[in-house]
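User: Can you help me understand a structure? I only have the sequence.
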Amino acid sequence: MTIPIRLNGSPVSDLSLHMPINGAWSAEIHCADGVPFIVGSTATLTMPGQSLVGRVVRSQLYAERVQVRMSGGLSDWQQSVTGLNYGKVQADKVLSDMGVVTDQALSTQLNFWTRLEGTIGQSIQLLAKHLSFNWRINPNGTVRIKSEDPVKVEPEAIETYRDESRGMIELAIEKAVVLPGCLVGDDSVGEVIYTLKQDGRLVCRYWTEGRGRVLERYVRWVTRDQIYLGTYTAKVVRQAADGTLDLLPEDSRLRGTGLQSVPILHGLPGCIVRVPNGERVLLAFDGGDPSKPYASLWHEGQVTSIELGGTLKVALASLVKAELDRIATVFDAHIHAVAAAPGSTAPTLTLISPIAEVASQKLSTE
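Assistant: Let's start by predicting it. Here is the structure, written out as tokens:
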């Protein structure tokens, strides 16, 4: 049975549609007639049981057939974006700055966020990963970034192949109702590929979500040296009254507009360092998390002041005091009274009083 598929009304003779559980879908399409589509225009791929809104990435006329490549959604995921740094921003703002339209508000508050120089797709991927969500494209072209809520579907289909070791299942299907994130029987669906065969049959091949998690762990291992796990030199633009720094990274991928209110991790409790503008520090991200930048390990340069202890006592101060108290006690116990000679005044006995606690010390170049 021939399955009718159309692209903006033009009959489709050949189709390969790839729908990942994490990312935008893409399709290679051949139309039997018509003229090439305008690159960048919006088009609708209509299949039995499903209509998908996407963007034309490439289109040409070849052998009297129109060849089209599409990507899901309304945005160009390969469009370049410059680096940009945020402080106290909602996830919605990060996305809207790139023209991304989501299906629901993302009001998650980010104390810090660094958008890398790259593409819109890469930026969404990093943000979604930080929020512990998958992202993909809804049929209407909006972006979905949220926790999975699997819907069980019962496709009109015949299972033609199953490979449990690879987590791959193939169906001869009549309606395109199997989508990433749904449930088919006991299968939790991850990646999905639809193919239109030459005889007009529509074939759905999907992989279980378990296989997707294995691939995700592998990708994380391969990319374990990603940029947020590195350490980078940055110039101090300003130090706030609370000790945090405004930094301008030297690496162009991180520079953007600079980072504001970055805390300093000295590795010493109660240590406060005041540093002039223009000095250089090392910038890193705690656990590779772009929302947790910190500065540490100063380069050789000038310092305004170093304060040890702050509101606390200097390290080991209690031990110093205890030892001085012991010495004072021994000294006081061995003072002997001396009788005064007739007509003279007896010497005054002065005991060593308890030693006061050792105060915080401040070393300053001021």
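Now, to help you interpret it: The chain has a mean pLDDT of 85. Residues 228-308 form a domain with the OB fold (Dihydrolipoamide Acetyltransferase, E2P) fold (CATH 2.40.50.230). Let me know which part you'd like to focus on.
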